[in-house]
Amino acid sequence: MGDSTCMDYDYLVKIVMVGDSGVGKTQLVQHFVDEKYIPSNKSTIGADLRIKTLEINDRKIKLQIWDTAGQERFRSITQCYYRGSHAVCLVVDVMNYSSFQNIGNWLEDIRRYAPKETKIIMCANKCDYDADQRVVDLDELQRCFGQRVTIIETSAKEGTRVREAFTKAAEDAVAHIQSLPRKSASNNDVVLGPSMSMLGGRKSCPCTIL
């Protein structure tokens, strides 16, 4: 798979980055788009838009990546960006247990404000830390949420599986677009077809409210 900055594309995919403040959303986007890690304690205000074009199976996929603020005071603004999204990357900080505790709230927002077809990738970020240092366990994430979302361990600092996470979001979104009736999904003017929920499955885990 190669990258391209050409303005021509076959599919336009909107990806929204969400998660608590400080979990590494901006650094993940920077590493994916700019291929470099820039440490920063500065919080995103509102939302920032980044563009990246991928080539997947001989198709050019233009990604609109919206990096949203994680602070509670911006939550109502963030909710607006779910509209028309094809994929959401929900970022969890494995060194911050409160980001795990808030997963249910983020998933509820996605369920309420995003199209039902929206694909969800959960990035368990900062996996560059040793397993015995982490306060969020991957097995616990899989047990609670693995039936409903795709979970990928990432490290914005080292670049671990960052590209894989965004590529997976793009692939899942395009696969859904391609499955729609032709009149509902033209290449550069995507109109989502009939709703189909991807958040089904068990609801027994106490750490989710879906």
Automatic annotation (TrEMBL):
Source lineage: Eukaryota, Sar, Rhizaria, Cercozoa, Chlorarachniophyceae
Annotated InterPro entries: P-loop_NTPase, Small_GTP-bd, Small_GTPase, Small_GTPase_Rab
Protein name: Uncharacterized protein
Gene Ontology MF term list: GTP binding; GTPase activity
Alphabetized NCBIfam families for the sequence: small_GTP
Secretion signal, residue range per the UniProt entry: none
Keyword Nucleotide-binding listed: yes
Keywords recorded for this protein, A-Z: GTP-binding, Lipoprotein, Nucleotide-binding
Record-stated family: Belongs to the small GTPase superfamily. Rab family.
Statement: the UniProt record of this protein carries the keyword Isomerase: no
Pfam families: Ras
